[in-house]
Amino acid sequence: MTATPDRGRIAKQARVRNLGFALAVSVALMLVAAACNNDGGNWGDARFTAEMRNLEGEPIGSVVMQQGSGGFLVTVMLEGIEPGPHGIHIHSVGTCTPDFKASGGHINVDNRQHGLLNPAGPDNGDLPNIYAAADGTVQAELFTTLVDPDLLMDDDGSAIVIHENRDDHNAQPIGGSGGRIACGVLN
Questions:
Q1: 47-185 carries CATH number 2.60.40.200
Q2: Which of the four, 49, 135, 149, 181, has the lowest number of CB atoms within 10 Å?
Q3: Run of H or E including 75
């Protein structure tokens, strides 16, 4: 007569194998998630600040970009701005001298058209408008998923530019937002 295997022992061995397999898969998935979350520059929770200056070179406030889990929180604190809406963009060159045009155009790695509402856009430098109160102050928080630390801190850096008018988020090349009235280099 042949011995029959102990069913309880076989079931226990199967559970242990399944638990080991599940543990191995979990560890592998965590490693894949960590690799996908790596931003190339190993920036961690990056924080960049731009001291904003007006056309006369006077300091008028700051823009802080704090990296979060899905993009950047952009905190804008300004004074001395003409009341009303103003376009704000991230420009591709980290300089504001000799004039604000030295900051180049928007960051635009995929050669997309300007505008958050443009079907062929947006470019990486597009942001929602900011609004200056009657006393010329701006206190705003914006959010963007269109940039990462490596784009902001490439070889020539980047700058924040404030425009004289609102951005319509569609017209080319800058949404009708007009001249540059403030600029700050992100550090």
A1: yes
A2: 135
A3: strand 72-78
Give pLDDT tens digits for 48-74: 999 999 999 999 999 999 999 889 999
CA distance to 5, 13, 25, per residue, from 19 (Å) = 22, 10, 10
Cβ atoms 133, 82 nearer than 8 A: no
Provide φ and ψ at 172, rounded to 5°: -100, 145
**Strand order in 47-54's β-sheet?**
88-91, 159-163, 180-185, 47-54, 59-67, 72-78, 138-144
Residue 105 one-letter amino acid: G
What is the per-residue pLDDT across 77-117, written as a single tens digit (0 to 9) for each?
Answer: 999 999 999 999 999 999 999 889 999 999 999 999 999 99
What letter represents residue 37's amino acid? N
**Domain segments of the chain: what residues?**
1-37, 47-185
Q: Which residues contact 94 (CB under 8 A, 6 or more apart)?
A: 103, 156, 157, 158, 159, 185, 186
